[in-house]
Amino acid sequence: MTKIRMGMVGGGPGAFIGPVHRIAAELDGQIALVAGAFSSDAERARAAGAQYRIDPARAYPDLNAMLEVEAARSDGIDFLSIVTPNHLHLPAALAALNSGLPVMSDKPATATLDEALDLRRIVRETGTPYALTYTYSGYPLVREARARIAAGGIGKVRKVVVEYPQGWLAGEASGKQAEWRVDPARSGQGGCIGDIGVHAFHLAEFVTGLTVTELLADLAAVVPGRALDDDCTVLLRFDTGARGVLMASQISVGERNGLRIRVYGEHGGIDWRQESPNALTLHHGDGRTEIIQAGDAALGPDARAATRTPGGHPEGYLEAFANLYRDFARMLRGEPAPLLPGIDDGVRSMAFIATAVDASARRAGWTPLIIPGE
After folding, report:
1. CA-based diameter of the chain, in Å?
2. Which residues lie in coiled coils (predicted)?
3. In the chain, which end has fewer C-beta atoms inside a 10 angstrom radius, N or C?
4. What is the C-alpha to C-alpha distance for residues 285 and 299, in angstroms, rounded to an integer?
């Protein structure tokens, strides 16, 4: 099988998510990183090219140069991976899509809802593949939870509790990864809610198959002098009448990456934790509790397809990320990839951020979550 050639924008020295994208994309041998505009600083771009072990001539000083030169090559890139801070997502995506290149973007789709709507319009007009790395939808047992709920395994959903506590921004935001996340010019309208709250929001809708229709938001910038929220609590109402609670925080001292989702139905409940991703707890209405393990023979087809190793051999973050890239490769080859997040997920997530930030600032109480154009 000929490998699909990937170009990357962002991911220069000191970046966290760039190397993750590269590892995930290449894990299954279907994609190869061959070019990049890794930094606006030429020396840092060259250093990143060496780190990623690509041809030095294909470590470009900027995105436009990469798109122009790669388009003229017989072995030019087949798609663009966007791993920049949020404010650069839209211009990079538009440049690629208008050049006919598919896009795999880190989340959120853009820095603002208006930008996301512009991006959705271009994606629809061009018909060019576009996807988002909502990583946690790639975990096998998250896909198993989704399938069991869809099949009625816990009955009609009544309550959704999703939480994502971290503690790494409880003090001064120092270092490359922290500084842009607390800067409205680079992060966008949301701080914590745009960085990790949006993961929790997407996970709640992905796992349950429901859509949020109303919310009541309480966002705060707890650390003195901080311009963006670093702690969020949002009550949710879903289209079926189910209720939910979403908590996201980056000032919860001692917490690391505590994403967790619990879904309660008429006769059962499901519980999954990102820090223990290879176990899914299923509570039965008769009092029994069942632990479903990654690699179990009884897993459904979606979970089995996302699993690479036998039971007892843990898979985690990188493999889940790789599942999204494998889905994307499938899409590029004209095959179905129904679980891969796309532009509609991106617009819904940006609408969630914008609505929560605005409603919290106005103390507006219950507020409809309106998706423009739907």
Report:
1. 65
2. none
3. N
4. 21
In DSSP terms, which residues pair with 303 in a beta bridge? none
4-135 topology per CATH: Rossmann fold (3.40.50)
Following CA atoms 359, 361, 363, 369 in sequence, which dihedral angle do they give, to the nearest 10 degrees?
A: 0
Q: Does the N-terminal peptide bond of residue 108 adopt cis geometry, omega within 30 degrees of 0?
A: yes
In the three-class reduction of DSSP (H, G, I as helix; E, B as strand; rest coil), residue 292 is classed as strand
Alpha-carbon distance of 169 to 220, in angstroms, equals 13
For residue 160, list its beta bridge partners.
Answer: 244, 263
Q: Which CATH architecture has domain 137-309+342-361?
A: 2-Layer Sandwich (3.30)
Task: Read off the pTM.
Answer: 0.97
Q: Could you tell me which residues come within 8 angstroms of residue 176 by beta carbon, excluding any fewer than 6 positions away? A: 14, 15
For residue 221, the one-letter residue type is A
8-state DSSP, 345? H
Task: Give ∠ CA 332-338-339 in degrees, rounded to 5.
Answer: 105
Distance CA 290, CA 281 (A): 6
Residues in the chain: 374
Contact 221, 232 (CB under 8 A): no
User: Letter for the amino acid at 261?
Assistant: I
- Tens-of-pLDDT digits for all 374 residues of the chain? 799 999 999 999 888 999 999 999 999 999 999 999 999 888 889 999 999 999 999 999 999 999 999 999 999 999 999 999 999 999 999 999 999 999 999 999 999 999 999 999 999 999 999 999 999 999 999 999 999 999 999 999 999 999 999 999 999 998 889 999 999 999 999 999 999 999 999 999 999 999 999 999 999 999 999 999 999 999 999 999 999 999 999 999 999 999 999 999 999 999 999 999 999 999 999 999 999 999 999 999 999 999 999 999 989 999 999 999 999 999 999 999 999 999 999 999 999 999 999 999 999 999 999 999 98
